Amino acid sequence: MKKTTRWMALLLSCFLLLGMLSGCKQPVTVESGAAEQDYPVEVCGVQVSQQPEKVAVLSESLADVVLALGYETRVIAVTEECTQTAYATLERVNVNDPATIQNVSPDLVLADASMEDGTKTALQDAGLKVAYVSAPTDRSSYEKMYAEVASLFEGASTGYNNGVAVAGDVCQTLDDIERIIPDNNGVLVTAAIVFDLEGNAVTGDMFYDSVMTSAGLSNVFSGQTGGTYDPAMLKTLNPSFVFCPESVADTLMSDSNYAGMTAVKQKHVVKVRDDELQRMGRTVVSLAASLAGAAYPELLEEQSTDPTTSIGQETSSQTGSETEYATLQAGDENNTMDDVYKMQARLHELGFLTVEYDGYFGSVTEEAVIAFQEKNGLEGTGVADNKTLQLLYSDAAKGAND
Hints:
The chain has 13 helices and 14 strands. By secondary structure, it is α/β, with parallel strands linked by helices. The protein has 3 domains: 35-162, Rossmann fold (3-Layer(aba) Sandwich), CATH 3.40.50; 182-295, 3-Layer(aba) Sandwich (Rossmann fold), CATH 3.40.50; 310-392, PGBD-like superfamily/PGBD (Muramoyl-pentapeptide Carboxypeptidase, domain 1, Orthogonal Bundle), CATH 1.10.101. Strand 2 and strand 3 (46-48) form a beta hairpin. The longest helix is centred in the middle third of the chain and has 41 residues, at 139-179.
């Protein structure tokens, strides 16, 4: 009888253990698409059991992606190079000093997969949960990056779908820009994006190569890989346009060694903001618009002397000599005509928008619109309707300091 009782107890224990195990969800990955469950999820070698509420971001590029996805409210700390307005008041951490990251007690840390091994080891030794996200090389991997980051923030089902949708929206906007590029008999303008003159540039295995294509440019370094080139090749390949940071542009235009280059002779060395060459959020759209506008000046609206005119500013209808503008509001972003970016540029010119802008109508832009409206005797709604935009683009517009 005692043996029977023991066996029954053992059998019951086994059933209870199996029941407990069956009730525990196994982590899913996002390699093959959206899963049926959100958490636990395994992404970039890190297992996350529930939605993180405190995230530290150690990458300017990934910080931009988080903004595009709309998860910035859960970011508690960033590195110094993350100068986006949304992060202005956050704690600053140092990738080379894991203690600064430990001090903010993050649930999760986002970092570039290209981070040096020694730094990765230090972060691991500090006991931090770090997801290392790879930089995209093309549109497919761009979507994958968004899906991975979103899955970490919101799960393998909800997050994944949001990531794919946002990446698709960015790529669709790039396609819209590409559609308005002049045909030029099928010949693209040759160009290079160089980070410096020591051999670092956009090569064919980088997502920025796709951005160049969307802007109607043929990358002379598309056959190179790894983001490097032989410095001598720049003169040999002789691109019609060179896009680069300000310091590089000044050197190109003043150094006699480059005097014979087409881009230098024609003054087609174009300065590009450093952040536009580092970020992978909606900033890639403003970069494509800047590249296209420089290479194809005919895209710029010629009938306006407004210095803030941007690519293809379109009018929906005309009433006498006035342009009727489509209403812009929070949540809008650059369409094919670059409307939001144009509005932001004008607000910046008048002193109402004092931070970097990228064509996305966020809360900071909304506050700038309200400030402009109130300064100019309009109701401060934050919605840029036709009446607001008519006044904004007119000579009668009052600046922030008027």
